[in-house]
């Protein structure tokens, strides 16, 4: 299969919003059909996912990839090849892996597979994955092991921090700004609360893959005129907690310094795949047969669709080709790594017993 050509065609699709991401799903549906593989499209809240299955057996391996990308300049949707790399928005994150997964399915479709392989292509990972991968996992599209083709430079991202995004409303007392001591500045109180949160016990915890959770003051809204002490401030905080940490306990600690005016904006489970999982060890061994460097096993700071499968105690990992600058300018994927990635996927599938 000409995986490179498929990748360039996918990059040309400006899949930054629902309609164009859905078009990318339909493009892949037709591509699979033209190459002898039937699939089905599932729609949820207007977002489309593609499911394609081959093989049979007791074990099921899921290859999960997203076709939506973050916004970029027009020229980034005009892919080009230079020095062994393909440049363009989504080349690394993660249309390179998607193209490799699709062509791997086509190449092995008529072989005597030892297991069932399910390809899942989704259209909303970059905006949270609630309508596609989460929906699929909730409705039984699960397996024994999940590979999400996020860019990992042929390493294995076995864990990921959970997400706890909160809004805190802080009350103060208004006064004339010429006499601020007569009021209670809600903005300053909010800053004090944020600084107190950064010193709570959950912030000091560490794990094998992380030095600690991530805490970011993402939003602040307060005050409306210069000559008044603000009596109300709202802040938004993004917390990425460690696998194994209890989000309810984290929230309780936050309320101990912020009071009860704390609301959850968004929540996402951590990914807790173990380094000694049999599938992880098998994948690591197979990667070692194809690369000349030590295979890195690590934890991701960000979130991916792996979290929706980990919730059901399914080992799920991020594993993708070599590339760089995803979500930035000059995003690229190395062509040879895509070919290597396909070989690894194929060897891994045939190693399942």
Features:
Aminopeptidase, 2 domains, alpha+beta, single chain, four-stranded antiparallel beta sheet, 353 residues, Alpha-Beta Plaits
How many beta strands in the DSSP annotation? 17
CATH C-level category of the largest domain: Alpha Beta
Beta-strand fraction estimate: 25-35%
Oligomer state equals single chain
CATH topology of the largest domain: Aminopeptidase
Task: Indicate the percent of residues in helices.
Answer: 25-40%
Radius of gyration: 23 Å
Number of alpha- plus pi-helical segments: 9
CATH superfamily of the largest domain: Zn peptidases
Strand order of the largest sheet: 1-2-6-3-7-15
Sheet with the most strands, sense and barrel status: 6 strands, mixed
Keywords: Cobalt, Hydrolase, Metal-binding, Zinc
Organism: Thermoanaerobacter uzonensis DSM 18761
Domain Peptidase M20 dimerisation: 160-261
Protein name: Succinyl-diaminopimelate desuccinylase
What can you tell me about this protein's structure?
It is a single chain. The radius of gyration is 23 Å and the shape is elongated. The protein has 2 domains: 3-160 and 270-351, Zn peptidases (Aminopeptidase); 162-268, Alpha-Beta Plaits. The chain has 353 residues and is of the alpha+beta class. The mean pLDDT is 97. The protein has helices spanning 3-12, 18-34, 91-108, 133-138, 186-197, 247-258, 278-288, 306-310, 335-351, and strands at 40-44, 47-55, 60-66, 80-82, 85-87, 116-122, 145-148, 156-160, 162-171, 214-222, 232-241, 262-268, 271-272, 297-300, 316-318, 323-324, 332-334. The strands form 4 sheets. Strands 1-2-6-3-7-15 form a 6-stranded mixed β-sheet. A 4-stranded antiparallel β-sheet has the order 4-5-17-16.
